[in-house]
Amino acid sequence: MPASTETETRAEERPADDPALEVRGLCVDLHTAAGTVRAVDHVGFTVRRGRTLALLGESGCGKSMTAQAIVGLLDPVAEVTGGSVTVAGTDVLRLSPGKRRKLAGPVLSIVFQDALTALNPVQPVGRQLAEPFRIHRGLSRRAAREKAIELMASVGIPEPRQRARSYPHQFSGGMRQRLLIAMAVALEPDVLLADEPTTALDVTVQAQIMRLLRDLQTEHRLAVVLITHDLAVVAQRADDVAVMYAGNVVETGPVREVFAAPRHPYTRGLLDSVPEHARRGERLPAVPGSPPELSAIPAGCVFQARCPLARERCVTERPVLAPVGAGRSAACHFSEELAHA
Amino acid sequence: MTTTADPATGSAPPEGAAAPPGARPPRWWRLLGRDWAAAVAATVLGAVLLVALLGPLLIGDRAVRQNLDASLRPPSLDHGFFGLLGTDVLGRSVLARLVEGAGTTLSVAVPAVLCSLVVGSALGMWAGFHGGIRESLAMRLADAILSFPSLLIAVVVLYVFAPSVGNLVAILAVARIPVYLRTARAESTELRSRLFVDAARTFGTASWPIIYRHILPIALPTLLTVATLDFCFVMLTESSLSFLGIGIQPPEVSWGLMVAQGRQYLQTAWWIAVLPGVAIMLVTVSATVLAAWVRLATDPAQRWRLTLPRKRRGTRPVTPEVTA
Amino acid sequence: MPETTLERTPDAAPSGAPLLDVTGVRKTFRSGRGRLTALDGVDLRLGRGETLGLVGESGCGKSTLARVLLRLERPDAGTVRFDGVDPFALRGRELLAWRRRVQMVFQDPFASLNARMSAADIIGEPWRTHRDVQPTAQARQRRVRELLDLVGLREGDAHRHPNEFSGGQRQRLGIARALALEPDLIVCDEPVSALDLSVQAQVLNLLADLQRRLGVSYVFISHDLSVVRHVADRVTVMYLGKVIEHGRTEEVFDRPLHPYTAALLSAAPTLDVSGEAGADREIPLRGEIPSPFDIPSGCRFRTRCWKAEDRCRDAAPPLRTRVVDGGDEPHEGLCHFPLEVAG
């Protein structure tokens, strides 16, 4: 897809180092039977244009809720209780719902995991792809349709003109994911959130989709937030990583450095439990236990119950995310010990 | 627009949002107490049931006692307790007739709905679970019943046989079987391919135990919801039949019959038709509200939502962060 | 892990005869769009106490094969022999007895457990059909406790419902249910792919422990190559309803015969962050898996294969074998132009 001059000028207006997305101290509370629990606890990170940040964590760690809070799609039982999400210089959490909707698409957009439920099953995909152009750009039906076909071609859908008349179920899983990505980048946003974009796909198709995302990112200088539980995907595709555990970011930094020498015992445990490193038949070094229930998150370190390094200080004092090197930080009292291990 | 999509595929609450581990689920009456609408509905239904059972003992023959001097009195406080809701054209107390009618109405509608619910659901679940020829047979049966105008069969049957409460119940029950049959079949067809049904098959479990254990408990809330809606339909059909003179026979009285009889006085004495109509509506709405509540309360994965204030419950299921 | 009465020595049958022997199994489904070929002449062998990894992408027929093995689906042709017995010839009592010996662990720990039943009811469900296994209520209760303990859950968990468990715990529950009838073979259909990494390792360890202690055999279906490599003794790779490669795990992973296996191996992302190696070793596959309604002629992989020539379209690929050191167990692949075959 040819980059329009509009985006180019927009990009030039701001210095290149200005973060496209800046999240600070984001807190999300869940109202549940057991009372109110904190699902996302002072999460912060920044992503610059052209860079990919991976939000890595297991289910229930709050990574998807963080994404939902950023794009404003939280479930009614969840509520943002603090922090800021700055996109293109404005804090979107302070905007009215209407103003916020105007940002969805041209500035900030999201790709979901499940392409089949994210597309309208009773509308031809061409019309669905044309919709953002009609809503945000006010294009005519015909012009929007041409745009949609252009877009389908740009994400590698063969014979886009014919396929535009097809319905979502007539596409394969990989093609549907391509359509979703096309929709997300239609209005050339600054920031793209991808919530487990390839998890539902086959391995060989996964690789294709990841390549497509990378190409689009280079072309549009997108800032990408990649939400995933897959360490290998992070290793291959992300520049920086924020590891989340029980609603907290426990370690951040450039992927290469973090994966080569993790400074938080949880990151270390995750990396160790990948079967790739173990010999066949040997026991895998699993992290014992499971993440704490949100209603029972301990006062001290969130990881203490499963941590091999845990001692008294971890019970009483919650470690803060502190710098442990150039561009790296970890929330552990004893991260020094991991550095020398 | 991608942002309009909802990735939720499951209905489980987010991790940690469920009741704390080991905690007993709250007792049902506590849950009921937290939900004012369901509590009101339960109270209304309880009151109607009580009136239907005990009412006739208290009113004596006032439901049929005529007093032409008191004809068509509007509701007022001037004529004692039984004059509260006015009188009909023969001067009979509308209040007394409502009380008397509650018993008759429920004694037709409840058994009729129960019969069609049980027979239709069993047939439908069986048909949907097995598929193939059994499913086709059951569905053709449903089509056959639906293809006759039920009012017409009712007229014929009730004309040939005596128009008794028993025959009325039987006719209404048969006429409504297809509704449950189709709903149960749809649920069952969907559920039979679920993994836990496959799991049960791998143990060698026979089909009726699987239906009873895995399909019924999940299909039941839906079927009960259909039944509450059907309750209203059955009451109205009964009133039409009564109006045609082949349903409830005067001097017996039902709400439907009262509506039918009061219709011609609607412009001069609205209370005769409107009040039994309101009674039918109250019972139906209460039953529907309560059914919706039961639906949530019997689902272990959704029950916790009932402890939240209504506005926070949400209309869509919470997105579980399933990394599948 | 404490001693329990579940301890068993593997059956003392002659080790030569495989526990599971599947030959030429074919299964097609008819639908509005035509005939869908799910399995097209599948062979499979599994020894006692062993793990067979079954690898393939969606539509390759691995789930249908699992359903055939569990006798949930009857094949159109071919034979299934379990310990010398054809399960499809069994009826009544004999069938029930056979059912006890083969169980399944499902992929989705959410969908495979009835949310309305408690953990104890779920584990004990098989006994409601097989009453003789645990005849008294007390015995049932005791065994539920033992099984909970065996899979690493707490006794107090017996009365909780599935939604109160985490994904990993739910899968442990599914495993406990599969163990309730003390089977010889457990078919694991993607048992860890819905689980988090740290929990995945726990469940893989649990499955390995159970195999060591109970001598149970596994057919382990997965799309995750690193997991299969870790657990399987032998690997069978499927593509569009056909086995295209089979051999010992190290052989298949280290020296794949079939281009598809090689592509799969290269597409799986690894943790290697050392450099741009990832981009170099990646074998780009064209397009996606063809529809099983319309399987390509000749070699079914030719539409995506970078080595495909005219011959691949015209003739079915021959069976290639590479004899491995030791001799008795060849590494087999179906391809006209196999990768690095000597001779």
TrEMBL record, chain A:
Domain ABC transporter, chain residue ranges per copy: 21-271
Species of origin: Streptomyces hainanensis
GO molecular function: ATP binding; ATP hydrolysis activity
Locations listed in the record: Cell membrane
Pfam family, one: ABC_tran
GO biological process, one term: peptide transport
NCBIfam families given in the database record: oligo_HPY
Entry-linked Gene3D superfamilies: P-loop containing nucleotide triphosphate hydrolases
Record membrane topology: Peripheral membrane protein
Family note: Belongs to the ABC transporter superfamily.
GO CC terms of this entry: plasma membrane
UniProt key word ATP-binding: yes
Domain of life: Bacteria
Keywords from the named record: ATP-binding, Cell membrane, Membrane, Nucleotide-binding, Transport
Protein name: ABC transporter ATP-binding protein
InterPro entries, per database record: AAA+_ATPase (IPR003593), ABC_Ni/Peptide_Import (IPR050388), ABC_transporter-like_ATP-bd (IPR003439), ABC_transporter-like_CS (IPR017871), Oligopep_ABC_C (IPR013563), P-loop_NTPase (IPR027417)
UniProtKB/TrEMBL annotation, chain B:
Ranges that cross the membrane: 36-59, 105-129, 223-248, 268-294
GO BP annotations, alphabetical order: transmembrane transport
Biased composition (Low complexity): 7-21
Gene Ontology CC: one annotated term: plasma membrane
InterPro entries noted in UniProt: BP-dependent_transpt_permease, MetI-like, MetI-like_sf
Alphabetically ordered keywords of this record: Cell membrane, Membrane, Transmembrane, Transmembrane helix, Transport
Segments for region (Disordered): 1-23
Topological relation to the membrane, as annotated: Multi-pass membrane protein
Keyword Hydrolase tagged: no
Protein name: ABC transporter permease
Species for this entry: Streptomyces hainanensis
Automatic annotation (TrEMBL), chain C:
PANTHER family reported for this sequence: D,D-DIPEPTIDE TRANSPORT ATP-BINDING PROTEIN DDPF-RELATED, TRANSPORT ATP-BINDING PROTEIN
GO biological process: peptide transport; transmembrane transport
High-level lineage: Bacteria, Bacillati, Actinomycetota, Actinomycetes, Kitasatosporales
Domain of life (superkingdom): Bacteria
GO molecular function: ATP binding; ATP hydrolysis activity
Source species of the chain: Streptomyces hainanensis
Family of the protein in this entry: Belongs to the ABC transporter superfamily.
Gene3D superfamilies, per the entry: P-loop containing nucleotide triphosphate hydrolases (3.40.50.300)
SMART domains named among the record's database cross-references: AAA (SM00382)
Protein name: ATP-binding cassette domain-containing protein
CDD domains assigned to the protein according to its UniProt record, in alphabetical order: ABC_NikE_OppD_transporters
UniProt KW keywords: ATP-binding, Nucleotide-binding, Transport
PROSITE patterns in the record: ABC_TRANSPORTER_1 (PS00211), ABC_TRANSPORTER_2 (PS50893)
Pfam families: ABC_tran, oligo_HPY
Residue ranges of domain ABC transporter in the record: 20-265
